[in-house]
Write a structure and sequence with these properties.
By secondary structure, the protein is an alpha/beta fold. Helices cover about 55% and strands about 10% of the residues. Helix 2 packs across helix 4.
Length: about 325
């Protein structure tokens, strides 16, 4: 339709255009009738948008999210699980509240949006409740969990997925370090920080040794001028290098959780004009609608024979029960 192309660009179907407008109106807590009136005003009489069409789209979005949020996860087997949160304001004068999201890369290299929920804070209890819900629905332990350094999140991961390796987001750590550096030196400190991850060794112990050596060079270079920045780097240093145990071709994408941050940023961009959301349900439905549709365009991971073998070895090492490992060793 012409109106769809004019408003949203070439290639946007009538259904997608209507859905986008309905979501925008719905999160403002408009009734179906209000949304219908807004569409008529925006699209003009030629759009022929009926109340039944609006109601059908609203109902479908509600139903899709409700079903998605209750679906079983037994068939979702992850190598990588990314966890992050973003804050949205529901009420005027109130603090923004977090929305927790989980997405991952399956053992087949496919991206998948796993879970979404709201919380009053980013406490251990809140994150723990989110992860417990995913586990109750059948989500098994991943090989690697990638997140920022929020204490509540880290504690919840250690509680529910103690066998998983934990990668601390390298981009979040870079921001923490640069916050302790004067503006004049930030570009050089940033460049030196990312040199820490320039590794040409084989995955595993050799790569981690090289990374630690690079980190030591950074510390020697900057400790005198910026001791706080160096202390920030060295705190929980090992968690910055967990990705180096994994296939080389995955390193740059599993050393940070910024991908889901970008998706949250897209959500915030779409609701910026709203200022606030009328409640948790509307907020979660909007965030889900954006992330779910964005996830269809997410890139998967390449799974070469070497990468598959590496991941299989890591699964055997970290996720195989101790009794099974002992039996294998005895048989050998």
């Amino acid at each position: 339709m012409a109106f769809a192309s004019q408003l949203f660009g070439a290639g946007v179907t009538r259904t997608n255009a209507l859905e986008t407008l309905v979501i925008a109106g719905w999160v403002r807590d408009l009734s179906d009738r209000d949304v219908e009136a807004a569409l008529d005003e925006t699209l003009g009489p030629d759009a022929s948008v009926s109340k039944s069409t609006v109601s059908r789209i609203c109902e479908r979005l509600r139903g899709e999210f409700a079903a998605w949020n209750l679906r079983r996860l037994d068939d979702v087997e992850l190598d990588y699980l990314f966890l992050d949160g973003s804050h949205f304001r529901y009420h005027d004068g109130a603090d923004a509240e977090p929305v927790f999201a989980a997405w991952g890369i399956t053992t087949a290299g496919k991206p998948v949006l796993v879970g979404l929920t709201g919380g009053a804070s980013e406490s251990t209890d809140a994150w723990s409740d989110f992860l417990a819900g995913l586990i109750e629905r059948g989500l098994r332990c991943p090989l690697l969990v990638i997140s920022d350094g929020a204490p509540g999140l880290i504690a919840a991961v250690q509680l529910h997925y103690p066998q998983a390796r934990r990668q601390r987001c390298a981009i979040h750590r870079a921001r923490n370090i640069l916050a302790k550096v004067s503006k004049a030196d930030q570009a050089q400190v940033k460049a030196d920080y990312w040199k820490i991850f320039d590794i040409d060794a084989e995955p595993g112990a050799a790569a981690i040794r090289q990374a630690r050596s690079n980190a030591k060079t950074f510390s020697v270079t900057w400790r005198k001028k910026y001791p706080g920045a160096v202390d920030c780097l060295e705190r929980d240093l090992g968690s910055l290098f967990e990705h180096l145990r994994f296939p080389v071709e995955h390193w740059k994408r599993i050393r940070h959780s910024n991908f889901i941050e970008r998706s949250f940023g897209e959500t915030r961009r779409r609701v910026k004009v709203i200022g606030r959301l009328p409640g948790e349900t509307s907020c979660l439905t909007l965030v889900w609608a954006v992330l779910d549709r964005a996830s269809h365009g997410w890139r998967g991971f390449s799974m070469s024979t070497v990468a598959l073998r590496r991941l299989q070895d890591l699964r055997r090492e970290h996720l195989t029960p101790t009794t099974t490992k002992e039996a294998v060793a005895t048989a050998a």
